[in-house]
Amino acid sequence: MLKSEIFDGLDIGFKKDFLNSCAVNFYKKPTLIIEQGEPVSCVSLIAHGYVDVTLMGEDGQHLFLARVKGGAILGESETISEEPAAASATTSANATILQCPATTVLKALQSVEFIKNMTRIFHRRLVYDNWVKHISQFGAVGQRLRSYLYLLSSSGGKINETQTYLASVVGCSRQTINRELSKLRDDGLIEQSGGEIIVIDREALGEGAMVYPLQGVAWL
């Protein structure tokens, strides 16, 4: 956690004081830690596992927004502004979350570097949200899938995500994802082994994707 983006440029004493004020929670099973519309009293730092962020519309339909992975933070805007949660957040199984009280975050905001890090994170989320809107309106299903696979393979050629998850982020049925993955296999861009997707030609995968603004984005 000392290498988390929120701590960029800050000295080791600042980092340790911040982390020592956090409660460490281990979730063996998927657990709702932020509920849409409810107060948020702490900032969550993801130490292990991931957190899925979802939105429930007025029609009762759930919309998948993002999967937030290790080193990232959640709930900071609600904690600082004292506004209710804009969306819900549910941990993966075997997730470790550090929960930092509002007093710690408000004290940290006295640091200019901490504020810069916070606004950098906000900016990347804005870029991500704009990208999602863009490809949702203008990208075909195949383009959207290629884009997400390109991003998911940024730290290695192997992707351990289910077709159900890919269907959620792409916004289509699992059957459609299966057909599109079959096309990518036929084109020699990926291979599949069990539940694992292996990207063979990431450069070619990116040529049919819409990913240009997303380098370094922490959400997916």
Structure description:
The protein is an alpha+beta fold and 220 residues long. The protein has two domains: 5-132, Jelly Rolls; 139-207, Arc Repressor Mutant, subunit A, CATH 1.10.10.10. Helices cover 40% and strands 24% of the residues. A four-stranded antiparallel β-sheet has the order 1-8-3-6. It has a four-stranded antiparallel β-sheet with strand order 2-7-4-5, with no helix packed on it. 28% of the residues are buried.
Topology summary:
Layout: H1 12-20, E1 23-27, E2 32-34, E3 42-48, E4 50-56, E5 62-69, E6 73-74, H2 76-81, E7 88-91, E8 95-101, H3 102-108, H4 112-138, H5 141-152, E9 158-159, H6 163-170, H7 174-186, E10 190-193, E11 196-199, H8 202-207
Helix pairs in contact: 6-7
- Distance between the first and last residues' Cα: 19 Å
Q: Give the strand order, joined by hyphens, for the main sheet.
A: 1-8-3-6
Write the CATH architecture name of the largest domain.
Answer: Sandwich
Number of strands: 11
What order do the helices and strands follow? HEEEEEEHEEHHHEHHEEH
Largest sheet: 4 strands, antiparallel
What value does the Rg take, in angstroms?
18 Å
> Strand content of the residues, in percent?
15-25%
User: What is CATH's topology name of the largest domain?
Assistant: Jelly Rolls
